[in-house]
Design a protein that fits this description.
The complex is a heterodimer of chains A (379) and B (140). Chain A is α/β, with parallel strands linked by helices and 379 residues long. Chain A contains 14 helices and seven strands. Chain B has a single domain, classed as Rossmann fold. The longest helix of chain B has 18 residues. Classes of the chains: A alpha/beta (379), B alpha/beta (140). Chains A and B meet through helix 9, helix 12 and helix 14 of A and helix 2, helix 3, strand 4 and helix 4 of B.
């Protein structure tokens, strides 16, 4: 079922706020989880809302992307709460959450997942600067980026994750919000992706509408443009990191803070091996390394850590870019991870976050597969 | 000219390949001493981290060897190892550690002769490839 959600007082944001208010007022929904502008600050953070008055501060579509909320939704849903929550997620957040469901770290049993055409994002530091300089208010931002197709935000650029994203469209949601191809001065389009989504849209009692004809064309254009940007980025980063000495140089500013791991929505271990005694080396160990090589950088295990993370989660990388966002040393971790992720995902024909029933590649095996990697050629 | 003596780390499973190595020994077969055997209970317990660490510490080659498909004493550990090796063979070459420096073989408990042959072949091939560029001097 597809409906058109009209603007309210000529505002898209208010129209969406009205939708969420009506959602919260229904019997089926006890709480909302969506980005909210926190009081007396420009920060927009994902928040769990039960008070309808607070929805006035909700900003469903903005360039603020402080963290991947997929991981927060996992916290809300890894056990039953007895409450039904409607959750608004960006496409990469949705993909991350689907990966966490597969790992039994979340469940959609008590959730209504609402996906959307991605409103794109600035990096955290750019977002702060942008808000201080000359912020476009919520509606003006959306009109500029979606209707006028103007990507220059007063000199700021969208994060490289967004510029190279090949799938900034909703998947796997109960309700989808569409922006591309829609006349945003009138409202947004919504359709249901599941029975429970359909039930909710029906309860809103809005007339049925149909998808604008040119949407598919716009979607194809975006995919193509971002795919070209992605290929260029991958080629560039491969050139920069195609040997271990180059990789070591790439990470020479890394201080082993593990922020990239902490903010990675699909880094799934409850306790990371790099936090265990395995890496709490004996003092004599450092001396032995130094004696063997003449010099040892501290903290140690930097390249080892990043390669391990690639082995653990590159197949599940959803390309959200939060690893780069979280890096205090401004290392472009995202570009490296995406370039490797593409390769491992292709090798296992795996597309993270797309199909809930597609098991993570390292959790399964087949008797007959990858025969070509076995053995040693004999003369 | 000084001949290149590679460092090869081999993770071998207790039930098949290690037993084959034992058989090779008791049969007085010889194989290159460049190969350092590390006995593990099953190839399914070889964490990709072990392989990454070996390369970063300067190994020129890494071998994982276990039971033939269907013979695993833990039912399916070798199938899991195969997926992990596949994964590493995608990641490591991206950073200049050539695909062929990491090998996976199945050598059964009674294959003492084959064990010695495979080790010799592996050693020859790694010598031909030359030293790995991966030994990291400053960072580890």
């Amino acid at each position: 079922m597809m409906i058109k959600l009209a603007t309210e007082e000529n505002s898209l944001t208010k129209g969406l706020q009205q939708f969420f208010k009506r959602l919260l007022a229904t019997e089926e929904i006890d709480a909302l989880f969506l980005p909210v502008r926190l009081t007396a600050s420009s920060s927009i953070m994902p928040s769990l809302v039960t008070d309808a008055d607070q929805i006035e501060n909700a900003v469903p579509l903005s360039p603020a992307f402080p963290l991947n909320s997929g991981r927060m939704v996992s916290r809300l849903s890894y056990k039953l709460s007895g409450r039904k929550t409607a959750v608004l997620l960006r496409p990469c957040e949705m993909r991350a959450f689907i990966e966490l469901i597969k790992l039994k770290q979340g469940s959609r049993q008590e959730l209504i997942l609402i996906g959307m055409d991605c409103p794109k994002a600035l990096t955290a530091s750019d977002y702060t600067a942008y808000m201080e300089k000359d912020p476009l208010a919520d509606d003006a931002y959306i009109q500029k980026v979606f209707s006028e197709k103007d990507d220059t935000l007063n000199g700021f650029h969208f994060s490289s994750a967004c510029q190279t994203c090949e799938n900034p469209f909703p998947v796997n949601a109960d309700i989808n919000i569409f922006l591309h191809g829609v006349d945003l001065s009138e409202g947004v389009m919504m359709d249901s992706g599941s029975e429970s989504g359909q039930k909710i849209l029906e309860s809103l009692k809005m007339p049925e509408a149909s998808m604008p004809a040119n949407r598919e064309e716009i979607v194809a254009q975006i995919k193509e443009a971002n795919s070209i940007a992605n290929s260029a980025m991958v080629k560039d980063i491969e050139e920069k990191t195609n040997s271990i000495p180059k990789l070591t140089a790439f990470f020479d500013r890394c201080i082993n803070c593990y922020n990239c791991r902490n903010m990675c929505p699909v880094c799934y271990c409850k306790e990371c091996v790099f936090n265990t005694d395995v890496f709490y080396h004996q003092p004599v160990q450092y001396h032995q390394w130094a004696e063997k090589k003449g010099i040892v950088k501290l903290p140690t295990d930097t390249v080892f850590y990043h390669l391990t993370r690639l082995a653990h989660i590159s197949h599940a990388c959803v390309g959200c870019g939060q690893c780069s966002n979280a890096c205090p040393s401004d290392i472009n971790v995202f570009e490296l991870f995406k370039s490797v992720a593409q390769q491992t995902q292709a090798a296992f024909e795996y597309s993270p976050g797309t199909d809930e029933n597609d098991p993570p590649p390292l959790s399964v095996f087949h008797e007959k597969e990858f025969e070509d990697i076995i053995g040693i050629e004999r003369e | 000219m000084e001949t290149f003596e590679p460092v090869i780390v081999a993770f071998v499973c207790n039930w098949c390949t290690y037993t084959a190595a034992d058989l090779a020994g008791t049969s007085r077969l010889s194989y290159p001493s460049n190969i350092r055997l590390i006995r593990v209970m099953c190839t399914g317990m070889v964490d990709p981290q072990y392989v990454i660490k070996a390369f970063l510490e300067g190994a020129d080659g890494v071998l994982i060897s276990g039971c033939h498909p269907g013979d695993c004493h833990y039912i399916n550990g070798n199938y899991k190892a195969r997926r992990r090796v596949k994964l590493l063979k995608e990641i490591l070459p991206r950073f200049g550690i050539e695909k062929d420096r990491l090998r996976l073989t199945w050598i059964g408990a009674s294959d003492g002769i084959e064990f010695a042959e495979v080790m010799t072949q592996l050693n020859d091939q790694i010598i031909e490839m030359g030293p790995s560029q991966a030994s990291v001097s400053k960072a580890i």
